[in-house]
Amino acid sequence: MPYIGYMDTQAKGPVATEIESRLRLALNPSHLLVMDDSERHRGHAGHNEAGESHFTVELVSTAFIGRSRVDRQRMVNQALSDLLAARIHALCIRALAPGEHSPSGL
What we know:
The chain has helices at residues 14-27, 69-79, 81-86, and strands at residues 31-36, 54-60, 90-96. The chain has 3 helices and 3 strands.
């Protein structure tokens, strides 16, 4: 049987789903990837046994055109402010304008 297409088998938890929803609403990205890095931080400070405490987000948005790296991070942080205060311990942000490329290949 031929392969039909890509299937995302990685289930998203409620915090990752909320991050994605908020960033889509606030920044209308053409590319958005939310990765839960929590398991890699097991035993480290800030690790939450319930999971979903450490994340990486990669996004491309026209909202970032002409903005500095710090401004872009502030925009992401603003969209997630209450989650950062209450639920997210660490957030790695890769925020790009269309046409820019990051070391990760985004």
